[in-house]
Design brief:
globular; 12 strands; Rossmann fold; binds NADP nicotinamide-adenine-dinucleotide phosphate; alpha/beta; 13 helices; 306 residues
């Protein structure tokens, strides 16, 4: 049960997942403390306006985390993506950030740590370093003497409207197979699920939960996008020539082919447990509507893999 006297520290709150988690925790009545690199920045200011305490901190600065976690009940841990071009974060940085957060949470007596990983994590390597680093962080978290929950989000629905996916040219090009389903989740729902996890620690302590809101093939995605936008959208999988040329994309596509990245969450069970979960249709009519409009206006090149 949420308690406004108890504080949950949220990392990455100026970003997608952390932002959604901070909003959902506030809605559930928690006190929320966001660790931000620039408290005077626009996003940090917006968090303050929404009643979130912001404290200056950096994942690379353990002292700042020690100070931020003081007296905290919970910590939501997410790391910037070491696989994202231009992020400036190496795989080893991501590992160090994730393990440092967990160790400091334990040493500060935090009651519940929630770590956001990826659907592709698991006991055997994928061969994609920025995904495998999350499996290593998961293991580290599980082996620490702290109550923890790992959530493994499916591919974000938001990724489908990024520049470079082709929507401005009337097509969607992604890794999904045209006729085989892949699971997706709305970022908003990652936040709501994390808040539900903090709200029911006995239920979620020690668990690893794969989370998704819908499962669609490439053709089904295009059909939903066509209906929502009123513009004809066709689907084509990213061309083989591109997958051969771009090693990371090629390896990631192979993980879709072998099932590792498509998601295997039990959607019926999740929808019963978290009735707010958005289908792709409902996301397109809700939080995704503005992003879809934007996608038709923004030409882009290259596939944004996150
Ligand atoms: N896209 C997908 O489909 C998908 C699916 C599953 C998992 N993931 C994983 O999700 C993670 C990214 O989550 P996201 O999309 O929510 O991230 P995001 O929107 O890119 O935001 C990153 C956040 O991390 C903060 N940050 C970056 N470097 C920092 C540092 N040194 N110290 C403190 N904070 C720092 C950023 O703060 P500033 O505002 O200061 O930059 C920002 O708040 C990645 O690990 C990715 O692999 C993605």
């Amino acid at each position: 049960m949420a308690d406004s006297d108890r504080t949950v520290v949220v990392l990455g709150a100026t970003g997608q997942q952390g932002g959604a988690v901070a909003a959902a925790l506030r809605a559930d009545g928690w006190a929320v403390r966001a660790v931000v690199r620039d408290p005077s920045g626009q996003r940090a200011q917006a968090l303050s306006a929404d009643g979130v305490e912001t404290v200056r901190g950096d994942l690379g600065d353990p002292d700042s985390l020690r100070a931020a976690f003081s007296d905290a009940h919970g910590v939501f841990s997410v790391q910037p993506n070491s696989g994202q071009a231009g992020s400036g974060v190496s795989d080893e940085d991501e590992f160090r950030f994730g393990t440092t957060v967990a160790e400091i949470a334990r040493s500060r007596g935090v009651a519940h740590l929630v770590y956001s990983s990826t659907v592709a994590a698991g006991p055997t390597p994928t061969g994609v370093a920025h995904l495998d680093v999350k499996s290593r962080i998961e293991d580290h978290v599980r082996n620490l003497d702290i109550t923890s929950t790992v959530i493994r989000p499916a591919t974000f629905m938001e990724i489908l409207t990024l520049p470079g996916m082709g929507l401005d040219q009337g097509r969607l090009s992604f890794l999904t197979h045209p006729d085989r389903a892949m699971q997706f989740i709305a970022v908003r729902d990652i936040g709501r699920i994390a808040a539900a996890v903090f709200g029911s620690p006995d239920r979620y302590a020690g668990r690893t939960v794969e989370i998704a809101g819908d499962a669609l093939s490439g053709e089904a995605l295009a059909e939903r996008l066509t209906r929502a936008s009123g513009r004809p959208i066709t689907y084509s999988r990213l061309p083989t020539t591109l997958l051969e040329r771009d090693e990371l994309l090629g390896r990631t596509a192979a993980l879709v082919d072998n099932g590792r990245l498509v998601g295997h969450a039990d959607l019926d069970a999740l929808r019963a447990e978290f009735p707010f979960l958005l289908s792709f249709d409902r996301w397109l009519a809700g939080p995704g509507a503005g992003l879809l409009d934007e996608a038709f206006r923004s030409a882009g090149t290259g596939v944004a893999l996150r």
